[in-house]
Specification:
two-stranded antiparallel ribbon; 11 strands; five-stranded mixed sheet; 566 residues; alpha+beta; elongated; 21 helices
Length: 566
């Protein structure tokens, strides 16, 4: 492999300075490997491009067919529609969720009128592909310089086929973005602190990475230990400037956290919503936690282990842990990355989250396991294999780690109900209102109905499908205006169709007036609902003259029903 160019002023990224019985003075500026953005050798470059293509391909195969629209996807796509049609760029903050990822969804709507779900999922797949490239960069920087490119390629390859990522990098969720910013935080922290000397501009990239992560989802704060770990690892024993430099990073990131407070629109919000914690009801009660620290962990840790067994696989997990021990003896930053970016954050989640512990919460903290496993496998092959067989040993060890991942990929993509973790199969493919079976068919029916002329469509003011899935596809398109029938919440028998003029809301998120509609002047009115919420008997009690014109079955006897009200 070609020797990378050298430059003064940086320390070798895979090694710390030698230990000593007493703290040393600041180490002198010395040579360190300067890595170009892409591998030096043509073969390595093409291998990286191939891995990125594999990553994108696995994340986009059957992109809209593997799952129907899911509850959080519907909500996020609705926020993007609100941004486009109402200009309320901070609508998500009313739910305690930072806005950045929803801005990407909205920008896609401004650029193209394509299928909103396809756009949202493709954006996540691209974020996952970008994370694959970032993991290559992290892997090469925490490895020994002489094996850096092979270690980086191994890390990227493992993430490209990582089953957990094949799930969340294909959904229009925020997790793909949290994962990407976690990678960016690690990469920029390494770039910042492996360089010796004081140059405050170096703190800007990791500060922005952490800040933008917090502007995407509050859980990015769990990557907050990574800059501190890098600062301590590369700065300990020298001057104390590393403490100040780390503080600069956190000060930059804090600006974005403050923005979440400042930019929240003026509107009614639920008492449990919080600009820092998102939803305070998700967490264990502090009094209960003080009385019994394991009140949440008692159930969360077994679930976490089952997630690891399903999506990381035990061979890869054991390879990561063994590699961390191996690399700790070699004074590598890799164990610090595993500790700060994975073990501590996931342990905190397991102890603090009581209401629910879905697999999407720990997911962004498992790419460090793969990076550490890749670096460890590379180091072990280089050190233990006989001369002339190192490449073969490296490929063999890597295959042992990757084979179970590929087997899980095949099961997930081929038979998702069997290949997914049981809780995810239930959550994403189960028989309940949060899984959007029947939504696509209802949208097609309502779109075709618009060929006969414009109409008003009423939906229920309920989070998720069908309402939040209907708005992104049909509102202010094809001559259709969609409104939430908020007045149906006033009583169990309140009519669905107002008899005259009625006030309408901007959305059930903002809950402020958007004017009024005189339904006497509207020639045609339809209503769409899910029988999980309102079975046909309940609809007819509210609106005796409602005519069921279409019904699209879900998996459990329920259906998405479309009624003509006028």
């Amino acid at each position: 492999m070609a020797v990378a160019a050298k430059s003064a002023g940086k320390r070798a990224p895979g090694r710390s300075k030698p230990t000593a019985s007493a703290p040393e003075a600041a180490p002198p500026a010395g040579p360190a490997t300067r890595y170009p953005l892409l591998p030096v050798e043509a073969g390595a470059r093409w291998t990286l491009f191939g891995l990125l293509a594999v990553a994108l391909g696995l994340r986009t195969v059957n992109l809209t067919g593997m799952f129907p629209i899911l509850v959080d996807e519907a909500i996020y796509l609705r926020w993007a529609e609100i941004i486009q049609h109402q200009g309320q760029w901070f609508i998500s903050l009313l739910d305690g969720k930072p806005p950045l990822s929803y801005w990407f969804l909205a920008l896609a709507r401004f650029v193209s009128g394509a299928d909103p779900l396809l756009q949202g999922r493709l954006i996540s797949a691209l974020a996952g592909t970008a994370a694959t490239f970032g993991i290559f960069q992290v892997g090469r920087r925490i490895a020994e310089p002489e094996s850096s490119e092979r270690a980086g390629l191994a890390a990227a390859g493992l993430y490209a086929v990582f089953p957990w990522a094949l799930l969340y990098d294909r959904l229009a969720y925020t997790e793909a973005w949290v994962n990407l910013f976690g990678v960016a935080i690690a990469w920029t922290s390494l770039l910042c602190f492996e360089q010796i000397g004081r140059n405050w501009s170096r703190e800007v990239p990791p500060g922005l990475a952490l800040g933008l992560g917090l502007f995407t989802k509050q859980t990015a704060i769990l990557f907050g230990l990574v800059p501190l770990a890098a600062a301590y690892f590369y700065g300990r024993g020298g001057s104390r400037s590393w403490i100040v430099r780390a503080a600069v990073i956190y000060a930059i990131a804090a600006l974005f956290l403050a923005a979440n407070f400042i930019l929240t629109p003026e509107a009614p919000t639920l008492a449990t919503h919080d600009a820092v914690l998102h939803h305070t009801g998700f967490f264990a009660n502090p009094q209960e936690l003080m009385a019994d620290p394991f009140v949440a962990a008692r159930s969360n840790f077994p679930k976490l282990l089952s997630y690891i067994g399903t999506y990381v696989t035990w061979p890869a997990a054991l390879a990561a842990l063994a590699s961390a021990v191996w690399l700790a003896r070699r004074r590598s930053f890799a164990p610090w990355l595993l500790l700060a970016g994975a073990l501590v954050p996931v342990t905190a989640e397991a102890f603090l989250l009581e209401l629910m512990f879905p697999s999407r919460y720990p997911f962004p903290h498992f790419w460090p396991w793969l990076a550490v496993a890749a670096v460890g496998v590379t180091a072990a092959a280089d050190e233990l294999a006989p001369a002339g067989k190192k490449a073969l040993a490296w490929a063999g060890l890597l295959a042992l780690v990757a084979a179970p991942l590929l087997w899980r990929d095949a099961r997930m993509l081929g038979e998702p109900e069997q290949g997914l973790h049981a809780s995810d199969a239930e959550g994403f493919l189960g028989d309940h209102a949060h899984v959007g079976y029947g939504i696509a068919e209802a949208i097609d029916f309502l779109r075709n109905e618009a060929r006969s002329g414009p109409y008003v469509l009423l939906t229920d003011p309920i989070w998720g499908p069908p309402a939040d899935a209907i708005f992104p596809y049909l509102n202010q398109r094809y001559g259709i205006r969609v409104f939430e029938a908020w007045w149906t919440q006033l009583s169990p028998n309140h009519s669905i169709l107002p008899q005259g003029e009625a006030e309408v809301l901007r959305s059930h998120y903002e809950r402020v007036s958007a004017g009024s509609v005189d339904f006497r002047q509207v020639p045609r009115v339809f209503y769409v609902t899910d029988t999980h919420y309102y079975p046909r008997e309940a609809v007819l009690i509210r609106q005796p003259n409602a005519q069921l014109v279409a019904s699209f079955p879900k998996r459990n006897g329920h259906s998405i029903d479309v009624y003509r009200l006028k």
